[in-house]
């Protein structure tokens, strides 16, 4: 069996994820496609991940891609989490993941409506969605509060988990809007605040072209292999949130080729992707919490020393801001309240790394400007650095 060692995996990461300076992208969609999907639960993460890989970083290009060209779109998809993908990849991710997520979200909400006991049912939900869509089409752009003001049904409150310790009263507006977005009827538009805000306005949109789930999953698997391969079956299963059968079917459909990894496990690459990747120049990167390069595999042993996990991850398994050197995670960074960028190295990287890490910090400071960034998922090291 052909072998791809850990060093070659790190070379691939630096080149294919556009992290080495000579490989940086000239457009925002090219960045998204290089990593397939950008984690977007934290609004700032999207911008930080893109700009780390752009030849000319800045908030403006990302905002144009999201809200003017709509060449980037947010989808509730992989692992039932909000991701941003290019408009070229969106139909595949929609059919491969988002449709199933939307169906599950709807079943869960209808169950809550039934348990509430007010007689709210599928017919009520359909009519509420129709009214909300009509109001949004008329307003062109609106926040959830503005839609609720226009549609009385959105101001309804229900009791969820009645009779249990988790019993609570919730408004339905956010749940209904989330369902409409999951179904591709509406999309997130410009936020009310700055680019770090998650208080989005909403606008109507067109559903994505349909394809079969199997075809779409094969396409997503192919793209993942090209960006993250070699990776194991468990890596792809975890990254997508698919079941084992779906994962194996997708790998077989794309014709993935088996390779041997340094730890003795069997990995997979895209068909014909066995040749050694050309080396890149030495590189450093300051990547945000939940960046794709840190979250692309279930087993991160080839780029993350086991001893670093306790300080770089929160208790839920979310990785914080990281410092990279030549394909390895070697430390973490944070931004203090006064705007100062600080970092701590957890690995001995030698003298050659220091000037390149300093240069990346200066590059980040230049485009972030006066904005202050606090990760939504805070880790022990990030908290220490900002204390």
TrEMBL record:
Molecular function in Gene Ontology: DNA binding
Presence of the UniProt keyword DNA-binding in the record: yes
Keywords: DNA-binding
Identification of the protein by name: Winged helix DNA-binding domain-containing protein
Provenance organism: Streptomyces halstedii
């Amino acid at each position: 069996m052909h072998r791809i060692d850990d060093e070659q995996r790190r070379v691939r990461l630096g080149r294919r994820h556009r992290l080495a300076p000579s490989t940086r992208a000239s457009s925002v969609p090219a960045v998204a496609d290089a990593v397939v999907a950008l984690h977007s639960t934290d609004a700032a993460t999207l911008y930080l991940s893109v700009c780390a890989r752009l030849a000319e970083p800045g908030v403006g290009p990302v905002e144009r891609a999201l809200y003017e060209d709509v060449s980037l779109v947010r989808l509730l998809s992989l692992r039932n989490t909000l991701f941003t993908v290019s408009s070229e990849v969106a139909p595949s991710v929609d059919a491969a993941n988002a449709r199933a997520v939307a169906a599950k979200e709807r079943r869960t909400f209808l169950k809550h409506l039934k348990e509430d006991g007010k007689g709210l049912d599928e017919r009520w939900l359909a009519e509420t969605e129709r009214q909300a869509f009509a109001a949004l089409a008329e307003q062109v752009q609106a926040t959830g509060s503005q839609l609720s003001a226009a549609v009385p049904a959105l101001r309804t409150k229900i009791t969820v988990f009645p009779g249990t310790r988790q019993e609570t009263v919730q408004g339905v507006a956010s749940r209904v809007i989330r369902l409409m977005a999951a179904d591709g009827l509406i999309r997130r538009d410009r936020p009310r605040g700055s680019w770090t805000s998650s208080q989005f306005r909403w606008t109507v949109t067109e559903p994505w072209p349909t394809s079969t789930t199997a075809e779409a999953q094969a396409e997503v698997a192919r793209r993942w292999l090209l960006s993250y391969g070699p990776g194991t079956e468990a890596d792809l299963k975890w990254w997508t949130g698919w079941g084992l059968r779906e994962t194996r079917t997708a790998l077989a459909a794309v014709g993935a080729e088996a390779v041997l990894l340094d730890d003795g496990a069997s990995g997979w690459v895209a068909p014909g992707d066995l040749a050694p990747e050309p080396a890149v120049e030495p590189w450093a990167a300051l990547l945000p919490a939940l960046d794709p390069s840190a979250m692309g595999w279930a087993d991160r042993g080839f780029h993350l020393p086991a001893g670093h996990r306790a300080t770089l991850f929160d208790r839920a398994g979310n990785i914080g801001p990281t410092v990279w050197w030549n394909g390895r995670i070697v430390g973490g960074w944070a931004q203090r309240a006064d705007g100062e960028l600080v970092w701590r190295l957890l690995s001995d990287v030698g003298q050659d790394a220091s000037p390149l890490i300093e240069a990346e910090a200066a590059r980040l400071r230049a485009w972030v400007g006066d904005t202050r960034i606090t990760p939504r998922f805070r880790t022990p090291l990030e908290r220490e650095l900002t204390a």
